[in-house]
Amino acid sequence: EFATYLNFCRSLRFDDKPDYSYLRQLFRNLFHRQGFSYDYVFDWNMLKFRSRDMASLRLHAARQGARCRPQRPRRTTY
Questions:
Q1: How many angstroms separate the Cα of 41 from the Cα of each of 27, 31, 35, 45, 64?
Q2: Cβ(64)–Cβ(56) under 8 Å?
Q3: In tens digits, what is the pLDDT along the chain, a chain of 78 residues?
Q4: Cα separation, 71 vs 61, whole angstroms
Q5: Three-class SS state of 55
Q6: d(CA 51, CA 44)
Q7: Is 17 exposed, middle or buried (0-12, 13-18, 19+ CB in 10 A)?
Q8: Which UniProt keywords apply (predicted)?
């Protein structure tokens, strides 16, 4: 599909208008043939939420660490 897309784009002259519906259909068909479904979850959203969740986990772990810090053994002198 990508080769078809590139050949189509290369064949356009400067004044030609691309057939956007044809081009979208090329990639939509490929998308479905590869077994993907349109679930409205985008990669950039996943990255944003994942980084936000990781930050909150780190904050939670830091707070827990402050409360549950293991005690150091006392030094004994002989």
A1: 18, 14, 15, 7, 32
A2: no
A3: 889 999 999 999 999 999 999 999 999 999 999 998 877 777 777 666 666 666 665 655 566 655 544 455 556 555
A4: 17
A5: helix
A6: 11
A7: exposed
A8: Kinase, Transferase
Reading the block at residue 21, the tokens are 């519906």
Report the chain's C-alpha Rg in angstroms.
28
What type of residue is 61? A
Position 35, amino acid: G
Among 6, 10, 46, CA closest to 27: 6
Residue 28: both structure tokens together: 């939509």
